[in-house]
Design brief:
By secondary structure, this protein is mainly α. Helix content is 72%, strand content 0%. Helix 4 packs across helix 16.
Length: 426
């Protein structure tokens, strides 16, 4: 499916056209890019610089080299068994009922935490603290988006795919808008002179630790920014809607490479235009970067664009979560009645409605932590989210060599390299 075909696909009326729609290559490519970029683009560079200084750029290169291999293994599983059960279905085939029970609930908890963290971040960036009513406004803001995003999932996979595709375009536009002015002074260029806001002096000292401390802090940075490639799982839950599943591996690898290049240059430009002091003391270094390179108006545009990108990252979970709950309900590992499909939209509408309330509860938990004075509640819950997600990813990766042994005769249209030892190394 090309771009022109995509627009024709969008204009079709699902209530009049009963043919089953399929997601083409460019659609799934931008869905994956949107899911990978997300809030990590604006939160994780800060964590990296605080931990390792400018040397955190090394961790960014390493994490995306690792991510490319992970995507290959996920791609093998996805095209092997394309299903709406996604990563849960992989674990079910690999580990049996108990293993799938553990994996399903861990995926569900991590997904709810992930969406709640994104929405709370968007609310706090869009409505910064300043008055006694800030908390109520942020809560309302998050609540409205929870309803809107889940409503799109309620309206079927078509509406959700369109939404994720558009958010993917927005993510690339916003990141490009933030990155290019870090290397090119466009106002000077228009007046006939060339200069770079990028300051190499910001990279001195490059290493803020030495010997074993250097390795330890780089390891810590690698752990903190692991979330940079989270979000890939959304395509595994939509794989049964893909027009040509054989293109999923290419889409996963291409999206990861594109996202990795974007992230590398963004982080490089950010470190080159924001001082280490501002990184440590300012909660929104991306806003400082925008102010330093584009002025106050540019800063306002970037902050608004950032909020849209974060919302875009949160938009994937209602689709993923609804399908996960339906698959678990059919296996009697969740509330059975949540497996029902909507008679008109063919979406797991009861699961989506349930998810709406659950994400609201998780979001309230994070907001509550801020109000009662939990020490850095956002960071604490973020770390819990990363730990749970890493456990799930480990289970998914190990499914590759196990299924190769359990299902040796099943035709594999794509086989990831080093499939028997790679997952153990990662």
């Amino acid at each position: 499916m090309g771009v022109s075909q995509f627009w024709s696909w969008m204009k079709r009326d699902p209530n009049k056209d009963k043919t089953k729609r399929k997601l083409g290559y460019f659609v799934i490519l931008f869905i994956i890019i949107n899911s990978i970029l997300g809030s990590s683009l604006f939160y994780l560079p800060n964590l990296g610089v605080i931990s390792s200084g400018p040397a955190s750029i090394i961790a960014w290169v390493l994490i995306f080299l690792i991510a490319i291999f992970i995507m290959m293994y996920v791609a093998e599983l996805t095209v092997l068994h394309p299903t709406s059960g996604g990563t849960y279905a992989f674990c079910k085939r690999t580990y049996g009922r108990f293993g799938s029970f553990m994996a399903g609930w861990l995926i569900w908890i991590a997904g709810n935490f992930g969406m709640a963290l994104n929405l709370v971040a968007a609310a706090q960036y869009f409505i910064p603290a300043g008055s006694g009513s800030t908390f109520i406004l942020q809560l309302i803001f998050a609540g409205v988006w929870i309803i809107v995003l889940n409503y799109m999932a309620y309206r079927s996979i078509d509406a959700g795919a369109i939404m994720l595709f558009v958010f993917g375009l927005i993510a690339i536009f916003v990141v490009t808008l933030m990155t290019l002015p870090s290397f090119i002074d466009f106002s000077g260029l228009f007046s006939g002179s060339f200069s770079m806001p990028f300051d190499v002096n910001n990279f001195h000292p490059f290493f803020r630790h030495s010997d074993l401390a250097l390795i330890s802090f780089l390891g810590l940075t690698l752990f903190l920014i692991t979330e940079a490639f989270f979000g890939f799982e959304v395509i595994t839950y939509m794989s049964d809607e893909v027009e040509d599943v054989s293109k999923i591996p290419k889409a996963l690898k291409t999206a990861t490479i594109i996202s990795g290049i974007i992230m590398f240059f963004y982080v490089l430009g950010s470190i080159g235009t924001v001082s280490y002091t501002d990184y440590v003391q300012n909660l929104t270094p991306f806003a400082v970067q925008a102010a330093n390179t584009m002025g106050q108006f540019g800063q306002q545009v970037v902050v608004f664009g950032m909020y849209l990108v974060i919302i875009g990252a949160a938009a994937a979970w209602p689709i993923t979560g609804g399908r996960l709950i339906r698959a678990m309900s059919e296996d009697k590992l969740f509330i059975k009645h949540l497996s029902a499909l909507h008679p008109k939209y063919k979406s797991p509408y009861k699961a989506v409605i349930f998810q709406t309330f659950v994400v609201g509860l998780f979001s309230w938990l994070i907001f509550r932590g801020e109000i009662v004075g939990w020490q850095d509640s956002y960071r604490s819950i973020y770390l819990i989210y990363v730990l749970i997600s890493l456990v799930v990813i480990s289970m998914i990766l190990l499914a590759v060599p196990i299924l190769r042994r359990k299902e040796p005769d099943v035709k594999r249209i794509y086989k990831a390299p080093f499939g028997r030892i790679g997952p153990f190394v990662l």
